[in-house]
């Protein structure tokens, strides 16, 4: 039996897993670490935390598995996207890494869009808009606000690239993570020299971008001593977590939609070829194989909206859960199940953190619409779940619109929301598609990283073989009657944001 190691450098922790040739997870270990918020809206981390966690998790996984290191064919990577790791001439970290959820760069993003001839000009160069989370704006922010750090910087890479560098001594990135910088020509799978020049950044900062399955280096003697991995072991480039984790959930061809209801909500689909991204409404990135692309949109507060509702308005259920030893979310689902679909005209817009997709609008805010004396706690509970799901459907419809011949077949649902039978059936009825959950989806990016690395190292011939036939754990089919109700409610929901946009903008000045 041969094995491959998958490492996911996440925001809250680093996970390392060992996967065998039958795609089974043999051993797994996660070590958590904190995130700094030096100012409201700013987030950063010390890359030394990632490296310490990577070394420890690798050693623990090797020990737990009992596998001979000579049977391991290589290492693959996944990691939080869009983070900025600045390295100096000696490849030392210049400053704490600015993370994906940092919001300090709006003015820099606006400046970069203008420099490229407006949104249309930028999308022509990169096929994406410049979001505040992207790496490009962070680099310009450092240039304008920390000139001494910018002057020291010789290379900029993403978080998982730093761990690969520490293991191999090679400074590089991959096409998926590079796509999330906002300065990458996604169509040609190379850096957009024109965009980089227009925004006034040195081309030398941007490193070689490998395909995710390509070998990007080998374990050094020093890293071998620290981790227990054999010197010379191949290490593949890997990819950003939002992209590479789709391989682990079987999203390896167009038509199968992946929906993650976590803190944020991610709707994603593999694309069989390059697709234009009109107005940059979606994020279109390079995928894990050279002939594949990836489309996705992110609703910022999906499970985050439900957690807000739990924390602020469910104290009785929280107390009941603590006393009975059950999960409060199970109690919330039970309560929501007692309300008729559509909640009697009560709708919820889940814009508690502003929004990225379907509307890139930091001024957008959450709304309960249609609230009447007839509505109680249970109706508000279900309305939050429905509102999140309506928002995810809006994102999906933008993906479907990219190709008029696209025939969506089913949804693979994952994340915390997928644990709720009520939410699974709701998704099936709102999308009008079968909704399934599969085994192994809980391993996230580390599992996808292992599978993609296995393709590059000859363990499997391609992504389809690597993904195999994921085992379905649950399947929910649309109910025609409920689906008809939701179609009417969805049309009203779809009209709310455009109607409220002027009000959101006015309210921005009141905060």
List the helices and strands and how they pair.
Layout: E1 3-9, E2 13-20, E3 25-32, E4 44-45, H1 47-65, E5 72-79, E6 85-87, E7 97-98, H2 106-115, H3 118-126, H4 135-145, H5 147-152, E8 155-157, H6 159-168, E9 173-174, H7 175-179, E10 184-185, E11 190-191, H8 193-198, E12 209-210, E13 215-218, H9 221-227, E14 234-236, E15 239-240, H10 241-248, E16 256-261, E17 265-271, E18 283-286, E19 293-299, H11 303-313, H12 315-324, H13 328-337, E20 347-349, E21 367-369, H14 377-400, E22 410-414, H15 421-431, E23 435-438, H16 444-456, H17 463-467, E24 472-476, H18 480-508
Parallel strand pairs: 1-5, 5-15, 9-12, 16-22, 22-23
Antiparallel strand pairs: 1-2, 2-3, 4-7, 6-8, 10-11, 13-14, 16-17, 17-19, 18-19, 20-21, 23-24
Describe, in short, the structure shown:
This protein has about 500 residues and is of the alpha+beta class.
How would you describe the overall organization of this protein?
By secondary structure, the protein is of the alpha+beta class. It folds into two domains: 247 residues, Nucleotidyltransferase, domain 5 (2-Layer Sandwich), CATH 3.30.420; 135 residues, Nucleotidyltransferase, domain 5 (2-Layer Sandwich), CATH 3.30.420. The chain contains 18 helices and 24 strands. The strands form eight sheets. The chain has a seven-stranded mixed sheet with strand order 18-19-17-16-22-23-24, sandwiched between helices. β18 and β19 form a beta hairpin. α14 packs across α15. The chain is globular and about 70 Å long. The termini are far apart.
């Amino acid at each position: 039996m041969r094995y491959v190691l998958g490492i996911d450098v996440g925001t809250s922790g680093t996970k390392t897993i060992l996967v065998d040739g039958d795609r089974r997870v043999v051993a797994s270990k996660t070590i958590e670490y904190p995130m700094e918020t030096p100012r409201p809206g700013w987030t950063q981390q010390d890359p030394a935390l990632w490296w310490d966690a990577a070394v420890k998790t690798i050693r623990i996984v090797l020990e737990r598995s009992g596998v001979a290191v000579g049977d391991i064919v290589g290492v693959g990577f996944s990691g939080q996207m869009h983070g900025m790791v600045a390295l100096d001439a000696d490849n030392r970290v210049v400053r704490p890494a600015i993370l994906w959820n940092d919001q300090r760069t709006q003015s820099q993003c606006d400046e970069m869009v203008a420099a490229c001839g407006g949104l249309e000009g930028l999308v022509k160069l990169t096929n994406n808009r410049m979001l505040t989370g992207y790496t490009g704006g962070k680099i310009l922010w450092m240039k304008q606000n920390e000139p001494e750090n910018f002057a020291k910087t010789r290379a900029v890479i993403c978080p998982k690239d730093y761990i690969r560098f520490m293991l191999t001594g090679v400074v590089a990135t991959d096409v998926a993570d590079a796509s999330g910088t906002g300065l990458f020509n996604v169509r040609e799978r190379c850096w957009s020299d024109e965009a980089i020049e227009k925004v006034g950044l040195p081309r030398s900062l941007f490193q070689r971008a490998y395909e995710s399955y390509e070998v990007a280096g080998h374990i050094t003697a020093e890293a071998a001593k620290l981790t227990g991995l054999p010197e010379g072991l191949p290490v593949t480039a890997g990819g950003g977590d939002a992209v590479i984790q789709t391989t682990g959930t079987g999203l390896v061809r167009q038509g199968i939609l992946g929906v993650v209801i976590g803190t944020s909500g991610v709707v994603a689909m593999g694309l069989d070829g390059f697709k234009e991204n009109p107005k940059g409404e979606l994020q279109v990135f390079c995928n894990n194989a050279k002939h594949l692309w990836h489309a996705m949109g992110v609703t910022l507060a999906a499970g985050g909206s439900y957690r807000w509702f739990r924390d602020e308005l469910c104290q009785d259920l929280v107390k009941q859960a603590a006393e009975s030893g059950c999960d409060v979310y199970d109690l919330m689902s039970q309560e929501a199940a007692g309300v008729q679909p559509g909640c009697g005209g009560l709708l919820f817009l889940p814009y508690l953190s502003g929004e990225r997709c379907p509307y890139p609008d930091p001024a957008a805010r959450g709304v309960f619409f249609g609230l009447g004396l007839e509505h109680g706690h249970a109706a508000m509970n279900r309305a939050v779940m429905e509102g999140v799901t309506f928002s995810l459907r809006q994102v999906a419809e933008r993906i479907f619109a990219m190709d008029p011949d696209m025939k969506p077949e089913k949804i693979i649902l994952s994340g915390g929301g997928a644990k709720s039978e009520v939410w699974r059936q709701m998704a099936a009825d709102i999308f009008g598609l079968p909704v399934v959950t599969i085994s192994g989806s809980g391993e996230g990016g580390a599992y996808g990283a292992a599978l993609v690395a296995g393709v590059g190292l000859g363990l499997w011939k391609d992504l389809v073989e690597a993904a195999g036939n994921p085992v379905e754990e649950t399947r929910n089919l649309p109910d025609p009657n409920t689906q008809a109700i939701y179609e009417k409610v969805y049309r009203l929901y779809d009209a709310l944001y455009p109607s409220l946009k002027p009000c959101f903008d006015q309210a921005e000045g009141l905060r």
